[in-house]
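From: lab user (bench 3)
To: helpdesk
Subject: output format question, protein + dioxothiomolybdenum(VI) ion

Hello, I'm new to running complex predictions and I'm not sure whether the block I got back is the full result or only part of it. Here's what I submitted:
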Amino acid sequence: MTATPIRPRSMGTHLTRLDGHEKVTGVAAYAVEHALDLPERPLHAWLVTSTIARGTVERVDASDALAHPGVVQVLDHTSARRLAKPDDAELAVLQDDAIGFRGQIVAVVLAETSEAAREGARLVRVHQTPAAAPAEVVLDDGEAYAPEVANAGHEPDTTDGDVDAALAGAAVVVDATYTTPHEFNSPMEPHAVTAVWDGEHLSMWDSTQSVHGVASVIGRALGLERGKTRVRAPYVGGGFGSKGLPHAPEMAAALAAFAADGRPVQLAVTRQQMFSLTGYRTQTVSRFRLGAEPDGRLLALSHDALSQTSRYKEFVEQTATSARTMYAADARATTHRVVPLDVAVPAWMRAPGEMPGMFAQEVAMDELAVACGVDPIQLRLRNEPDVDPDTGNLFNNRRLLECLERGAARFGWAERDPEPGVRLDGDWRVGTGVASASYPALFMPGNTTRIQALGEGRYAVSIGAVDIGTGARTVLTQIAADALGVEPGRIELSLGDTELPKATVAGGSAGTSSWGTSIVLAAQQLRADHGDDPDAGVETTATSEGYPDMENLALHSFGAVFAETRVHRWTGEVRVPRMLGVYSVGRVINPTTARSQFLGGLVMGLSGALFEEGYRDPRFGHVVTQDLATYHVASHADVGDLQVEWLDEEDTAATPMGSRGIGEIGIVGTAAAIANATFHATGTRVRDLPLTADHFLT
Ligand code: MOS
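Helpdesk reply: Thanks, we reran it on our side. This is the complete output you should expect:
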């Protein structure tokens, strides 16, 4: 059985966030707060990290630390439990003496209080020997190679037609290089774990986007049988991808729990440690080449993307994948190359690939519009493909142009000066810019939902999904209500626990689509087998494999982002007084929580456009800007008037709810719209993020 489309009743309405009250009253417990409820007092763990980028740990001298009255134990690579499968280098914590980057975990201090643990960590003396060969920590120093696959299983390279020949024959050519810096996820709740080993079971309360993912990866590495690792995450204070995969701190907490002899261990990663231990968006360098007819029609489109990975675990930012699908061009090519460095492991950050890749692409398109003397929206209209250029499949629902046109009308695009650098308001140069956005409608199979009738039209719905703050708890309740034909108040939804049926990660903007489809399938199966008003105790469990129409269609969401910028003529300061995002994302299941997702995406895009830049020390490869004072994330004072809207639509080719994902598309295109607006304001073309003041003081 496969799920079939459901009719909206609660879907599309502003159901108030179901866990809002718990959150604002402080009742909602986050990862380390669960330790308070356990019978045994917890031990506090503090991580000690390497101070060289490449070499070996000769000896961890814990004598001073252990002399501290509060310190109980210090674990290092000679004393931590051995992993059964240490094959994932990032998770092989304290397994040998090798140092692969500065900031790597080399010891864990366990103490009676957080303060003692921290002081104990300061007292641990780590004797390290640098490797004979100097560490390579700068992108330019390393040797680039072609990875076997880009992140998420994409081919690293694609070719269709002869790009060089098409460029040679083009009347207008844009050939430019765009860069984005290291960027770091800064969710409100840092990575944190409470872990207990009772001699047979490992229990973890983790700040994660995937309880089942953590349980299976950590459990397998430790050699625990299935079912012996339980992970819970009832509330999570954000993730953006950094909590999509388990990272080293989770393993450190698990190892500490084994050493703690039945006492719970609580570990909160410090904000500074997040800059080396929880993944980050790698720096990217994109060469973008566009060749066009005089009217802007594309003949050639080529995106060569370079990023860095860590030497001991590969991660490839899929920077060029959106160039494969966005615009029609006779000849197209994309490549991904990576440089391995002796640095921390990069990982996911909201729209990995699309965010830096579409910054390059959409600024290049703006440059082409200027070179051809064509309005940027007209240019995109002229390059609208009939089918997905990458797969040749029909788009299910490609409404990019409507997003652009609606946005243009609302934003006042028609009044825009055709020439850049002509509007001055006091000492501020004023301009506007636009960019397209796209994000694939991903879907993850293998989600299982259990529905139990409780009688009188009430149902318990269980799935091991995670609400990381997006509103998933609320939205899944609405989906269950509509699929079962009852009011949302009659649904008791349980999630965030591996005791509940298996669910995939809250990532790839695929959570609601994937989990929701499984909820719909279970509901439809229950109703088919037991009628619309089953007796209390009747239960159905169903696992969704896919959804009927996904194979032969190109499923993507689209958007158009408009920005106004003001650039100070004497200081170069950039302000963004207003932005507008118009999106085509299928049915919006809850307008309140969805709006927050889009607004959050726009803010994060603005933050990347103007501020975020991790500065890496070229001697050691660690991030110097490792706090929120020196790594500025957009705050209230940086954000002006933000408007979002979406097209009224449903996409039952994507999911039985008619929805597609919305978590990531809001960040895509935003930095390009802002960069394009600063060009329009000043006539200065900036191709490197962030758009700091110095760029405009030429
Ligand atoms: Mo998000 S970067 O897909 O968790």
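A quick orientation on your result: Residues 159-183+280-441+552-696 form a domain with the Aldehyde Oxidoreductase; domain 4 fold (CATH 3.30.365.10). Let us know if anything else is unclear.
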